[in-house]
Each structure stands twice: as C-alpha cells, then as structure tokens.
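Working notes for the structural subgroup meeting. M.R. asked for a predicted model of this chain before we commit to crystallization trials. I am recording the input and output together here so anyone reviewing the notebook later can reproduce the run.

Input as submitted:
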Amino acid sequence: MRQRVIDELVEVAILTAYLFVTIGAMNLMKAAVLEDHGIHLAYWGVAIVKALLLAKFMMVGKALRIGEHNPESPLIWPTLRKAFVFVLLLFFLTVVEEVLVGWFHRRSLGDSLGELFGARLPEVLAGTLILLLVLIPYFAFQVLAEALGERRLVAMFLWDRHAGESRPHATDRDG
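Returned structure, recorded in token form:
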C-alpha cells in the first residue's frame, strides 16, 4: 500500500510537471501576443494550479479505468483512445470549473457558459487541441510501459537502453 501511494504521488508530480510546461508555454505565448497589444499578463500561478488539477483529474480517470483497451490490439489504438477519452474528460471538467468559478463570482450559468463558448471558444478549442497533442505522447509512453513492463521502460528510457534484455554471450555470436 505504501509503495502504491508513493508511485501515485510520483506519477502526479511527473504529470503535473509535464502539464505545467505545456500550460506555461501556452500562457507564455498568450502573454507575448497580448504584450504586443499593450496588455501585460503573467499568471504562472494559474498554470501550476491548472496543471495540478488536470493531473489529479487524470489520476481519477485512470483509477476509474477510463479508456482501457484490449491488450491484444496494436499500441496506437489504446494510445489514441486514451488521449481522446481523457481530452474529453478534461474538457468536460473545464466546463465544470468555469461554472464553479462563475458561481463563486455570482455569475449566472448562462454568463459562465456564454463566456466559455462565446468569445473564448477559439481559445478553448485551440487549448483542447494542444492538450490532445500533449496527451498522445504521454499515453504512448504509458501504453508502451504496460506492454514492456513499466520499470523496464523507465530503465530503458533513463538509464540503460538494453535493460531487461538478454544479451548474447560470446558463444552465441560464434555459433
């Protein structure tokens, strides 16, 4: 149980960092564009909070086994399935987040959703597409880890390319 908690905390930390870099890059781009129009914007705090929330939502989705697949199918299909299902989940939760923020600021449901699906719709769609493109490699790594064995993939990726592989002996090469 203790090891499982540690593994999940590590996974949340890695996923949060991965999402923070992405969200931070999008915010940096947005700030640069707005800066050209004389609007100063810096909200790194929002990026880390949003990354942490999205990571937590993804962990909940993983615990609920959202997007699970047939273990016999080629790895591209579970990768794409998980990426699409999770981007839909995160989009839905973004809508819920906007409604809650609107409620907190005493705005009506119509005003909250109108802002999200009105003037900000292109921004929301672009952010969703970027999130999908970020989730594809994340899930590709995850699905590959399931196929090879998680510890083996991490070892191969970070330390030894041939981890877990039986290496030929000198007699095997000669024979």
